[in-house]
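Margin note: ligand = S-adenosylmethionine.
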Amino acid sequence: MAANEAARGPRDVDVSTASAARVYDYLLGGAHNFAADRALAEQVIQVLPTARQVAIANRSFLRRAVRYLVGQGITQFLDLGSGSPTYGNVHEIAQEADPACRVLYVDHDEVAVAHSELLLAGNPAATMLGADLTKPSTVLDAPITREFLDFSRPIGLLMIAVLVYVPDSLDPAGIVATYRDALPAGSYFALSHLTADHEPVAMAAVVEAMKNSRDPLYFRSYDETLPLFAGFDLVAPGLVDVPDWRPDPGHQDASSGEGYAGIGRKS
Ligand SMILES: C[S@@+](CC[C@H](N)C(=O)[O-])C[C@H]1O[C@@H](n2cnc3c(N)ncnc32)[C@H](O)[C@@H]1O
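Resulting structure:
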C-alpha cells in the first residue's frame, strides 16, 4: 500500500498498532489492513505456517453455519465481531439462500466499521454498529438494534472467532448468557473459537506475537469452550474441530482450523 496509506483510514484511528480485524483481513488476502497489521500477520505466519489456512477454514465454517441457519428458517442475524468486509460476507451468503434475510454487523474496529458502512450504504437489509460486544447493553439497547432486528422472532447469533479476544476476567460465558437471554426461543448461536489444544507450542508463540496488538488472544481448550453453549442445545455433530462441522460434500479444509466450532439452539 502507498506511503500515505494512513490517510485512507478513518479519522483519528491509530493504524500504527495492529488490530485483529486487520491482521485477519491480511491473512484472508484482503486490502483493509496497514503496515503494522501486515508485519504482525507475517510474524504469526512465521510461528504458525498454517495461519492463512486457519483463517480460511474459519471463514468457510462461517459460510456453512449461515447456510445451515437459513435452512432452519433463520432470516435475521446478529453478527458480533464481524470484521472487515471480505469475500463471502454474512449478508451475501444469507441473502443468496433467502433474499428476506437481514444482518446486523457489530465490531469495535474503526477500520472494519468504516469499510462495512461503505459496503452496506444503500443496503436496507444489512447494517453496521460500531460497539464493544463485551458490553452487551451497548449492542442490545442500541436504537439501531431494536429497529433492525425483531426480537419476537428467532435470531441467529454469530460469534465467529471473536470470543478468543475476550479474557476470562470479562466472563465470556456471562456475556454469551446475556445475549442468549435477549433472544426468543428457536434462536441459534454459532460459535468458533481458537484453541492451543492441537499445537500448543506454535499457538503459544501466536499469543506472544499478538500480545502487543490491540486485540491480544485468549485460547481456550475444548473443556473451556463447551460451557459457552450453556442454555443452548448443541446440534449434531456438536462442538468439533472447525473443518469437521458439517463439511461441504467433497471438500475438506486443509488445516485442523486450530479451533472448535459448534451451533446451539435455544429451546
Ligand atoms: C478474527 S476476526 C473474525 C471476523 C469474522 N467473525 C469471521 O469469523 O470471519 C475477529 C473480529 O472480532 C472483532 N472484535 C474483537 N473484540 C471485539 C469486541 N470486544 N467487540 C466487538 N468486536 C470485537 C475484531 O475487531 C475482529 O474484527
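Strands lie at 76-80, 102-107, 126-130, 156-160, 188-194, 233-234, 240-241, 259-265.
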